[in-house]
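Training component of the fellowship. As part of building independent skills, the fellow (R.M.) carried out the full modelling exercise for a liganded target. The chosen ligand was 6-phosphogluconic acid. The inputs are recorded below so that the supervisory panel can assess the work.
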Amino acid sequence: MTEIEWWDYDDAAEMAGAVAGDVQFVIESAIEARGAAVIALSGGKTPVPIYDKLAVAKLDWKRVTIVPTDERVVPLGDAMSNVTMIAKAFLPKGARVMPVVPNATADYKAAGRSADALMQDLHWPLDLCLLGVGGDGHTASIFPGPDYEEALSGPRERRALGVMPDPLPPEAPVARVSLSRQGIVTARALMIACTGTDKRRVIERAIEQGPSSPHPIGRVLADVELPVDIHWAP
Ligand code: 6PG
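Fellow's submitted model of the complex:
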């Protein structure tokens, strides 16, 4: 059984401060232990205030490498690009933000393979993976579709892969590159930040359903060995 702890806040601003503080602590500990930190940060809209708070933390940012948990296969700079949003917050601080999809391409599988090759050069496991969850229960870009089982239970050494969601999510209806479940659940610290009662219900149900959940978040979290912190605000 996965050990889950919920952290509830009054609002998104309070959650942002708390999650930024936790991520800062993880980064400091990794730098102290190893001289460097490698973290994966989610895309979407929810984490933007978290990143704004985290970016003003006094940290040795040059020692921090950031990858997105997932990226939409769009050109860098596109409004849908997760890494573009993350880079806006952390590049000016001197962090290394890795654009895992440097070019838009029609071949999402090839984009996934080159992201995986880039990821292989990082120090593994990740010091932290901060996930978001969609209203449909997806996390990172692990979606039902032709790549679903590969994302959930592909080869252990596969860190990232190309994913074609089916159906395409309306908020960003494009192919993706995502960390694999294996890349996510082997992180030293695993956190989720989410808002809204509907998402909370989806996550709670998915956790109860475990490996048989129809929601990716349920399957990703089933039988995870490390404790998972879920930060939530209404
Ligand atoms: C993506 C994300 C994704 C995100 C959720 C929640 O690119 O789609 O990284 O996993 O975390 O969709 O997104 P919101 O925070 O915008 O609701």
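The panel noted the following from the submitted structure. The longest strand covers residues 190-195. The pocket of 6-phosphogluconic acid is lined by residues 42-46, 69-70, 72, 82, 132-134, 138-141, 172 (CB under 6 Å).
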